[in-house]
Write a structure and sequence with these properties.
single chain; about 325 residues; mainly beta; two-stranded antiparallel sheet; Porin_dom_sf
């Protein structure tokens, strides 16, 4: 560590001024001014390593409150690209802008006040995520989340309106909520009422939860109870999990146990995975092992892929399903 001490004469009084330069510490440059009006600290942080997300910071401590200006620029995994935080005696005010290609939070404002925490969150996702608009209100009575989902493409997902209200439980208990879905065409998805309770597990273990779905027309989708636990694998390995579904009517979907491992491919290549399904009634769906790779086409074109299915019973012997492209040859007149 390099230290430089200089003496400055002010009003016939000698006051030391110390400058510190740290190589290993993330505080690379700091100045602190102690005055009768309060302490003023000017802090500049520059980190060559990617682990710390604070690349530039200024902090001002005064008797009127603490003011912190924080700029974060992360090229990789961190989703905070720009942030300002103001700590005052009236409360903490944080302005956070997030621009992430994969994360669904593109714009966010958080206001921490003595009356409670208020968060305005706007989500805009071009790809598969259905959350287009979201507001979260953090109050002393609890956290309430209002979620609005709107999907433009009816052919892919005809859930055109979703509205939900969620209450954040203390600790890691996640949130319990109520969501309502209005579907224009009932044949695709007639789940109009969903109620769920989730617990966030420590580390990368994801969450374990219980969800209940009430369907107006039971013959289309009769999965009324789902229980699942998932583990988030490092990097892009996706997640591995197990889910259990309890169906009232077994003739539609009798897959009661599913176990899968998926790997997220780069870009729009989707994911490649292996899933295992255990069926109570084998005569309806006897595909117990599936492996597939898919490519997500642009806009509403869906996806194209190849999948392999292993069947216990040979009467359904389609073990390889693929979509072959059409070959169009130009017309050649006969000579």
């Amino acid at each position: 560590m390099l230290a430089l001490t200089a003496c400055i004469r002010i009003n016939d009084r000698i006051r030391p001024f110390r400058y510190q330069h740290n190589v290993e510490d993330d505080d690379n440059w700091k100045k602190t001014f102690h005055t009768k009006y309060g302490d003023f600290e000017l802090d500049f942080e520059y980190n060559d390593y990617e682990e710390d997300d604070d690349n530039w910071k200024k902090t001002f401590h005064t008797k009127y409150g603490d003011f912190e200006l924080d700029f974060e620029l992360n090229d990789e995994e961190d989703d905070d690209n720009w942030k300002k935080t103001f700590h005052t005696k009236y409360g903490d005010f944080e302005l956070d802008f997030e621009l992430n290609d994969e994360d669904e939070d593109n714009w966010q404002k958080i206001f921490h006040t003595k009356y409670g925490d208020f968060e305005l969150d706007f989500d805009y996702n071009e790809d598969e995520d259905e959350d287009n608009w979201q507001k979260i209100f953090h109050t002393k009575y609890g956290d309430f989340e209002l979620d609005f989902d709107y999907n433009e493409d009816k052919s892919v997902d005809d859930d055109n309106l979703k509205i939900g209200l969620y209450y954040k439980l203390p600790g890691s208990w996640g949130k319990i909520g109520f969501s309502y879905e209005l579907n224009e065409e009932e044949y695709d998805d007639d789940d109009n009422l969903k109620l769920g309770l989730y617990y966030k597990l420590p580390g990368s273990w994801g969450k374990v939860g219980l969800s209940y779905e009430r369907n107006e027309e039971e013959e289309l989708d009769d999965d009324n109870l789902k229980l699942g636990i998932y583990y988030h694998l490092p990097i892009s390995l996706g997640k591995i999990g197990i889910s259990y579904e309890l169906n009232e009517e077994e003739y539609d979907n009798d897959d009661n146990l599913k176990l899968g491992l998926y790997y997220k491919l780069p870009g729009s290549w989707g994911k490649i995975g292996l899933s295992y399904e255990r069926n109570e009634e084998e005569e309806y769906d006897d595909d117990n092992l599936k492996i597939g790779a898919y490519y997500h086409l642009p806009k509403s074109w869906g996806k194209i892929g190849i999948s392999y299915e292993r069947n216990d019973y040979e009467y359904d012997d389609d073990n390889l399903m693929e979509r072959k492209p059409w070959i169009i040859r130009p017309y050649q007149p006969k000579m």
